Amino acid sequence: MFEELRSRLLRYLLVLGLSVHDGEEIVQESFLLLFLHLQSGKSRQNLRGWVFRVARNLALKQRAANQLQMRRTVDFDETLPEQHADRNPNPEEQLRSRQRQSRLLAVVRALPEQDQSCLSMRAEGLRYREIAQALGISLGSVAASLARSLEKLGRADGG
Questions:
Q1: For residues 107 and 85, what is the distance between their CA atoms, to the nearest angstrom?
Q2: Which class is 2-74+111-156 in CATH?
Q3: pTM exceeds 0.70 for this model
Q4: Rounded to the nearest 10 degrees, what angle do helices 128-135 and 47-65 cross at?
């Protein structure tokens, strides 16, 4: 389970504004807490959602303890072009792509924290039920949040 969720969980923590170091620490602590949870014979239902919820709670505590971490966000502008951009786009295509990324990133950053969390967790492959459990909200709230966020992103993307 650690191998399956480690990178997804770390990316989610980075989106919440933690540094890589703090994110890795929280991932380790989350799985230690999972081990203790299982060792004590507690529920084994929806362990993916449980791990994300524990990691989210630890991340929020870390952000509260460190005001600088609270203001930091992952700089998608530097990482996305390297991972997804065509290697040979012309200058006009490059400019359009950067403008689109900036526009969409601005929309995501303007979303309420809960909507950002729902969107990030869904992007990491979590199901609605797992997101609801991780955030402590209803399934309907997850669906509404994602629909609202995707609508805003669609409008910003010209669709």
A1: 20
A2: mainly alpha
A3: no
A4: 40
